[in-house]
Design goal:
77% of the residues lie in helices and 0% in strands. It has 122 residues and is mainly α. It starts with a helix and ends with a helix.
Length: 122
């Protein structure tokens, strides 16, 4: 059975919401290798980043499916705005700029768990 990318985005979001419970579950089940991989800072940041990206893709998808299905101008504007966001994300990532205001999950995780030294090494 294949999972559509929209569902994958929702699954990633749900996993991020439950990450503390997943950590507890993995520890209780004595799944040390999975627990270490799941609690790894790089994995946690990657998960948060993916959640935010898929959330943005899902929002774009919903805009393109909305009431304006016949309005090519509205679709063009939505796609153009999204491509500009992608350019901004790319610039911020390349500059290692940590004000990812568009990435709420990623930014939250940076504030909560990750040391500044770790981020500099990324």
């Amino acid at each position: 059975m294949e999972v559509r990318w929209l569902s994958k985005g929702n699954m990633l979001s749900r996993l991020f919401e439950l990450k503390d419970k997943v950590e507890i579950f993995l520890k209780q089940q004595k799944k040390e290798e999975l627990y270490c991989a799941f609690t790894d800072q790089t994995f946690q940041l990657s998960l948060a980043y993916l959640v935010d990206i898929f959330e943005s893709l899902n929002n774009l998808n919903l805009k393109l499916q909305g009431n304006n299905t016949a309005n090519i101008i509205a679709h063009h504007d939505a796609i153009k705005a999204f491509t500009e966001k992608i350019k901004l994300w790319k610039c911020q990532t390349q500059a290692r700029h940590l004000t990812f205001y568009l990435f709420q999950h990623f930014q939250h995780l940076l504030k909560m768990k990750v040391s500044k030294n770790f981020v500099k090494r990324m």
